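User: Just a sanity check before I run the rest of the batch. Below are the structure tokens for the first item. I only need the designed sequence back.
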């Protein structure tokens, strides 16, 4: 951390500031994790201590659920179970997080980037087929910001070319179409449960294996994956506790400053491998790794509260939309959309982000074609100018969080000012 960053993060006077982090967690979860840290010696899940993991898995109405230390590790394991290797190609959206192409690159394969549409920021299904070659081994179906992509159309294309579909539900847990939940429609589905997602277990992820023909390979690989060691797991649990306190709106004015310091001195831990495009460079923890039982305690609580969580998010999306008038009512009410963030385009994003910053730290996603990477895109096999819609959206995206610690009335005046500015770019 350089001096400029430290100065810019210095805490100001005590005041309430909302943010995107740890917004679904309760004080009861804090007490559970603290109690486990103090009194439970077997906090790392193992063959002899997996009851919390099994309870969490049973919360999902799916037959084959696997838990991971992160969603990206689950995706990597899916690729390995499919036998993805050097020279293979995986079609993905060019509007994602950098950990997605990283996982592909770790196998030796190459990500092939498909452009998006402006309506829901998901992959443009009309452009997928032109990218399919004899090297193509899978199609990646990402549900962006809590809005489902056209998974049925993607499956039709995949079936035509006998390709598996991997659903990325990292941002859309709970979305569904035709009574089928996102993540259960493709051959695989994977989720993330870090501190910015629909549910938060600090770090974590799940994989659903929906196609029986891939199950045996996946199971074999999964059984050989290790757990994080006890020291690292304790740090993750401590991170959860600190985040729950310091990311609270009443403490964020201070937490924004202390969080980088805690990271610098190793008090808290995250999986910070976004800039590591070679798997061998990840040395602090095994990649992939399995989920830890102490965080499964939080996951159980989070799943129990999922319905209330999603109802709240829908309510906030409606509140925003009633003011901004961006989406038709049918879109807001659709069960396909759970609105992890209420997202739209603006002409002068930097100006509006600064305007909102006195009330809320937006931490806007995705401000490049691969969030977490701002330059040297050739390192992840992307050429600037390749997909113009993705690049246009990345420069203009604006999103508002919807979790349970957001009070939208605090930013109503700003929302009205934004609406009246004529800066909103409407695509519907």
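Assistant: Here's the designed sequence for the first item:
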């Amino acid at each position: 951390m350089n001096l400029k960053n430290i100065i810019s993060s210095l805490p100001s006077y005590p005041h309430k500031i909302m943010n995107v982090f740890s917004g679904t967690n309760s004080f009861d979860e804090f007490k559970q994790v603290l109690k486990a840290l103090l009194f439970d010696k077997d906090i790392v899940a193992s063959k002899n201590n997996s009851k919390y993991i099994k309870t969490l898995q049973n919360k999902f109405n799916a037959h084959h659920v696997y838990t991971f230390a992160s969603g990206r590790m689950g995706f990597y394991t899916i690729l390995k179970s499919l036998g993805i290797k050097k020279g293979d190609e995986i079609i993905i959206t060019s509007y994602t997080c950098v950990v997605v192409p990283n996982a592909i690159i770790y196998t030796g394969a190459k990500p092939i980037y498909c452009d998006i549409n402006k309506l829901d920021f998901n992959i443009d299904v009309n452009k997928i087929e032109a990218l399919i070659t004899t090297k193509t081994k899978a199609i990646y179906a990402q549900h962006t910001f809590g809005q489902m992509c056209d998974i049925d159309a993607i499956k039709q294309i995949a079936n035509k070319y006998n390709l598996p579909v991997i659903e990325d539900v990292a941002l859309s847990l709970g979305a569904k179409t035709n009574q089928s939940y996102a993540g259960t429609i493709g051959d695989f589905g994977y989720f993330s449960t870090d501190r910015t997602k629909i549910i938060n277990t600090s770090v974590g992820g799940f994989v659903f294996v929906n196609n029986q023909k891939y199950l045996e390979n996946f199971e074999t690989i999964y059984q050989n994956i290790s757990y994080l060691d006890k020291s690292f797991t304790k740090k993750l649990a401590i991170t959860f506790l600190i985040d729950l306190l310091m990311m609270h709106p009443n403490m964020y004015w201070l937490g924004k400053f202390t969080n980088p310091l805690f990271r610098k001195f190793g008090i808290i831990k995250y999986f910070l491998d976004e800039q590591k495009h070679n798997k061998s460079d990840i040395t602090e923890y095994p990649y992939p790794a399995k989920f830890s039982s102490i965080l499964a305690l939080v996951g159980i609580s989070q799943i129990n509260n999922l319905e209330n969580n999603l109802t709240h998010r829908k309510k906030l999306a409606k509140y925003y939309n009633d003011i901004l008038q961006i989406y038709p009512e049918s879109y807001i009410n659709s069960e396909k959309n759970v609105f992890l963030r209420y997202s739209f385009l603006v002409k002068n994003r930097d100006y509006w982000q600064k305007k909102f910053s006195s009330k809320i730290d937006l931490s806007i996603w995705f401000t490049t074609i691969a969030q977490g990477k701002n330059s040297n895109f050739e390192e992840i096999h992307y050429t600037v100018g390749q997909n113009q819609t993705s690049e246009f959206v990345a420069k203009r995206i604006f999103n508002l969080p919807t979790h349970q610690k957001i009070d939208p009335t605090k930013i109503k005046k700003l929302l009205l000012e934004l609406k009246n500015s004529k800066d909103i770019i409407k695509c519907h």
